[in-house]
Structure formats: C-alpha cells, structure tokens
Amino acid sequence: MLVARRQFTVQDYHRMRDVGIFAEDDRVELLDGEVVLMSPIGPLHAAIVRRLNTILSQAAGHQFMLSVQDPIQLSDLSEPQPDLALLHYRADYYAASHPQPAEIELLIEVSDTSLDYDREQKLPRYAESGIREVWLVDLSHQQIEQYIDPANGSYRTKQTWVHGQTLTSPHLAMLNVRVDDILG
C-alpha cells in the first residue's frame, strides 16, 4: 500500500497558522516539508533554557540578539524552532522575516526526550544550511555536545563537555561558559 504524503512549504505552513489550523501555542515545527509535533517542555528543560538565556544575554551584550524558542528559516521547506539562537543584530529585530542561516552564529537545542530527533533530524539540516556552531545539551547524560565546521550535511568537529569543564566557542570569543553553570 502506498502512502501519499504532501510536502508543505514555509509559505504553506504560514498560511496554515494564519487561518487557524495551528494555534499560537501549538508546539509544531516544519522540517523538510513535514509538520512535526514537538514534545511538551518539562521543568528541567525550561530551567536550562532560562539559565542559557541569562548566560548568553550577558555574554552577547549589544553585538548579538538572543532568540528563545523562536522559528528560524533554513530553506523553503524547513522552519524549525531551536531552544536558543544567537543572531546577528538587526535593527528590525527580524520583524520582516525569520532569521536565516547566514544570520545565525549559534543554535542550542536542550534535549531530554528529543535527543535522537535533535541529533538525527535537526543537526544534519543545520549542517546542510551552514550553521557554524550547534550545542546539544544532553540532559540524560549531563553533558553538552558542541558541533562546529559544517560540511556536506554534517559537522566535521564534535566535542563533548562535562561537569567541571569550560565550554569555549572557537569563533565567539565572548563565549567561555562553565558546564556547571548550564547544567547546575
């Protein structure tokens, strides 16, 4: 039996939102033309996002903008919602369009129940789009995976950071963050 699937564009996805198919607080994202339901956010996940929000806001100063659980547009078929994104400053605060890969310095996904999805589905799309750096905060294993140097749909460099270490960004000098400050 063949299953018919329809691929949606970002424009289709926005129209669905505009006509009320998705409510404003529905936890969905568009990945490769498919609408994906996202897991509910638990208290630990939310706490880590808040910690990172505080840490990155202080580090970024006025040079960058921090976006929390907002959409980014990777292509005409993908509009995921990472937990945090460090963006180039734009005077309109991205009112005219969602941030695109060239405007993104760092993406962070906080993963508890979504680790496999984040690692196997989202991470390759971030690499394909040329996102320079991605952190996966793995709550189950109490570690942070840092991915840099995107090429051919994957990241050439992966480093794992654990309690007692200080995570450093190779291209964002202001980012030297103690893992303990993130994971508690």
Descriptive account of the structure:
- With 184 residues, the protein is α+β, with helices and mostly antiparallel strands.
- It is 26% helix and 30% strand.
- It contains 4 helices and 10 strands.
- The strands form 3 sheets. A 6-stranded mixed beta sheet has the order 3-4-5-6-7-8. A two-stranded antiparallel sheet has the order 1-2.
- The mean pLDDT is 94.
Largest sheet: 6 strands, mixed
Rg calc: 16 Å
Shape: globular
Q: pLDDT under 50 segments (min length 5)? A: none
How large is the count of helical segments?
4
Distance between the termini: 50 Å
Helix content: 25-40%
Structural class, by secondary structure, is alpha+beta
Lateral arrangement of strands in the main beta sheet:
3-4-5-6-7-8
Percentage of β-strand residues: 25-35%
Number of strand elements? 10
Average pLDDT confidence is 94
Order of helices and strands: HEEHEEEHEEEEEH
Short description:
The chain has 184 residues and is α+β, with helices and mostly antiparallel strands. Helix content is 26%, strand content 30%. Strand 7 and strand 8 (154-162) form a beta hairpin.
Tags for this entry?
4 helices, 10 strands, single chain, 184 residues, two-stranded antiparallel sheet
Helix and strand layout, with pairings?
Layout (H helix, E strand, L loop, with lengths): L9 H9 L9 E4 L2 E4 L5 H18 L3 E5 L15 E5 L15 E8 L3 H15 L3 E6 L4 E9 L2 E9 L3 E3 L7 E3 H5 L1
Parallel strand pairs: 5-6
Antiparallel strand pairs: 1-2, 3-4, 4-5, 6-7, 7-8, 9-10
